[in-house]
Amino acid sequence: MLDRNMITGAPTSAEADRARLHALENAYCSYGDTVHYTEFPKIFERCEGSFMYDDEDRPFLDLQMWYSAVNFGYANPRLNEAMRRQLDRLPQVASQYLHREKIELAAEIAIGAQERFGRKGRVHFNVGGAQAVEDSLKIVRNACNGKSLMFAFEGGYHGRTLGASAITSSYRYRRRYGHFGERAQFIEFPYHFRGPRGMTKEEYGVHCVRKFERLFESEYNGVWDPKVRQSEYAAFYVEPIQGTGGYVIPPANFFPELKRVLDKHGILLVVDEIQMGFYRTGKLWSIEHFGVQPDVLVFGKALTNGLNPLSGLWAREELINPQIFPAGSTHSTFNANPLGTAVALEAMKMMKEEDFGASVMDKGAYFLDGLKELKAKHRIVGDVDGLGLALRIEICEPGDSYTPAKALLDLMVDEAMKADLVHGGERYGLVLDVGGYHKNVITLAPALTISHAEIDLALALLDQLFTQVTPR
Question: Which domains does the chain have, with CATH numbers?
Answer without folding.
Answer: 35-68+356-469 (3.90.1150.10), 80-353 (3.40.640.10)
